[in-house]
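Budget justification aside, the reviewers requested a transparent look at the raw inputs and outputs of the sequence design task funded under Objective 1. We therefore reproduce one unedited record. The lines immediately below are the structure tokens for a 209-residue chain.
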């Protein structure tokens, strides 16, 4: 049991705030892990790219679970992807963990990935779940239980860049992907490296944020 994992209150804020704050934190998963260098935020409400927009099961997941719960799904029938539920703040959201800089359990991750190139271990959401051994069986685990999995506080300061989301067909223009500037471990470098204001949709009251 690790006592220093981030508490549930960390995930009870606005999803965009949480997605930024997770950069530089360490994701620990059953003895393996690394520093988070890339995240992607999805809003539960009015975000066509979020599973809650079209999947009743995803909406039920948000309704049922507390902030800090693991959300795992199979992407295009190929790769498991891991997310964390953000709930209880101004808005609810789901944050995809897109890339890590490996620092813990590297030998085990190399074995799972079949490579000893550290930049190829976790430089993408499908790669990192394979490296960490994450599958659909981990859906609805609790990052805040203090047992084997969780997030450790930020290990070092990071220069954060915001960029548009990738790998989606709808609402791809939202600049809700956050990366460590010039990191060699991100999945895809930002297109122009220019931060954009993360305030381009309507809230529940129909007001443009």
């Amino acid at each position: 049991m690790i006592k220093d994992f981030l508490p549930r209150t960390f995930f009870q804020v606005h999803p965009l705030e949480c997605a930024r704050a997770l950069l530089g934190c360490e994701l620990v998963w059953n003895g393996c892990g690394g520093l988070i260098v890339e995240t992607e935020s999805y809003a539960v409400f009015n975000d066509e790219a979020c599973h809650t927009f079209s999947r009743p099961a995803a909406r039920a997941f948000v309704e049922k679970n507390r902030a800090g719960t693991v959300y795992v799904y199979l992407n295009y029938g190929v790769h498991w992807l891991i997310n964390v539920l953000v709930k209880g703040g101004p808005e609810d959201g789901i944050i995809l963990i897109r890339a890590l800089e490996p620092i813990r359990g590297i030998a085990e991750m190399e074995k799972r990935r079949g490579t000893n190139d550290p930049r190829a271990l976790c430089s993408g959401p499908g790669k990192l779940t394979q490296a960490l051994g994450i599958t659909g069986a981990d859906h609805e685990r609790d990052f805040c239980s203090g047992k084997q999995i969780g997030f450790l506080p930020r290990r070092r300061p990071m220069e954060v860049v915001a960029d548009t989301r990738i790998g989606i067909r709808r609402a791809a223009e939202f600049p809700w992907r956050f990366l460590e500037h010039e990191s060699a471990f991100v999945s895809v470098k930002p297109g122009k490296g220019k931060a954009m204001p993360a305030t381009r949709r309507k809230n529940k009251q129909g007001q443009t944020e």
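The chain has one domain: 8-180. Residues 112 and 131 are 6 Å apart (CA to CA). Computational costs for records of this kind are itemized in the attached budget.
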